[in-house]
């Protein structure tokens, strides 16, 4: 089963990359951030985990 989480504070791919650059460790470890697993969803992104 695939769980999806919406990061409503991420409004662009640049914002997503900024979060990763800033070293949000749980995000890096728990999410699969390959392009095919990141779906744009209005004001945020849905990430498959």
Observed structural traits:
single chain, 49 residues, alpha+beta, 3-stranded antiparallel sheet, 2 helices, 31% helix, globular
Write a brief caption for the model:
The protein is of the alpha+beta class and about 50 residues long.
Notes on the structure:
This protein is of the alpha+beta class. It has one domain (4-48). Helix content is 31%, strand content 27%. It has 2 helices and 3 strands. The protein has helices at residues 13-21, 25-30, and strands spanning 4-7, 38-41, 44-48. Strands 1-3-2 form a 3-stranded antiparallel beta sheet, with no helix packed on it. A hairpin with a 2-residue loop joins strand 2 and strand 3. It is globular and about 30 Å long.
Cα end-to-end separation: 9 Å
Instruction: Provide the structure class.
Output: alpha+beta
How many separate domains? 1
Largest sheet: 3 strands, antiparallel
Catalogue the unreliable spans.
25-29
- Strand line-up of the largest beta sheet: 1-3-2
| Oligomer classification | single chain
Shape: globular
How much strand? Answer: 25-35%
Q: What is the rounded Rg? A: 10 Å
User: Given the structure, what is the number of helices?
Assistant: 2
- Topology pattern, helix = H, strand = E: EHHEE
Number of strands: 3
Helix content: 25-40%
- Average pLDDT, rounded to a whole number, is 54
């Amino acid at each position: 089963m695939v769980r999806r989480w919406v990061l409503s504070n991420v409004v662009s791919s640049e914002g997503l990359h900024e979060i990763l650059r800033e070293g949000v460790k749980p995000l890096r470890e728990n999410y699969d951030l390959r392009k095919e697993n990141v779906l744009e969803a209005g004001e945020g992104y849905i990430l498959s985990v």
